[in-house]
Amino acid sequence: MEAFVFLSAKFEIVQVIDQLNNTKKTLFSFEILPPLKGKSIESIYEGIDPLMEFNPAFINVTYHREEFIYKKRTQGFLEKIAIKKRPGTVGICAAIKHKYNVEAIPHLICGGFTKEETENALIDLHFLGIDNVLALRGDPIKTERHFVAEDGGNTYAKDLVEQIVDLNQGKYIDEEIENATPTNFSIGVAGYPEKHFESPNLLSDVKRLKEKIDAGAHYVVTQLFFDNERFFNFVKLCRVEGIEVPIIPGIKPISSLRHISFLPKFFNIDLPAALTDQLDQCKTNEDVRKVGTAWAIQQSKELVEFGSPCIHYYTMGRSKTVRTIANEVFG
User: Catalytic residue positions?
Assistant: First the structure.
């Protein structure tokens, strides 16, 4: 089954991508959010079921780190309490593999984890047969102006990649472990066609991406973008800098009036003038959804023509719009 072998072994990715490119086939994948604490996993299945007819190559599951709240205690003291609003990433990945027989890829982040905790999480994933991860630094929590690594944790995504590669070679933190069984993780990392907001320029950002690839990452999934020319330029620059691994574009259709201002601000991206001209005419969320869907369909068709090995859709827990797009592009 092609969708399963796409990421089934860490040394097979480029070979499979090359094979698919020879047949001019672009794969379909998407990302989901864990449900809010207290919600059933059925909400996840309801978002996945409508997209299964398009034979997704893999499904990414985001990880949401802890947030902190302060509760008043006696004598005016404040107690700092850590909470997680969307737990369950590992369990959801295991459930997806069991229910759909599709490769589920958890996000693994630096923030909030020591290296030992990261190692233990990787061991759990390995025991569950989840051998693919997306290695990310992660964002700062709301109470931090800048990202702060956990004491004894990984500071950059490159460091996280290196730790995973060590496990793939049977190297654990405890150097006294003998005859350790190596893991077989395939490692994805993030790319930014419009640069990471902390980078001074795109070239500098691509050089940081090259460090992650040199550390042992096997493929790249990009942040969402709305201007394909930005992606084409990003791929060209990556190739010039010696990045030869598959680069998978990430697409998020605009589907509400709120998205028009929220997405550029939150993800530090631009909306093309041609798109904003159309959005300026929209009065309702349904108007925006129609414009956003049509734009994403055209984006996707251009990316298929460009030869993208896969197109990755950010569903944000809503599959209706992505299903409409996939039906036009992959149906």
Answer: 31
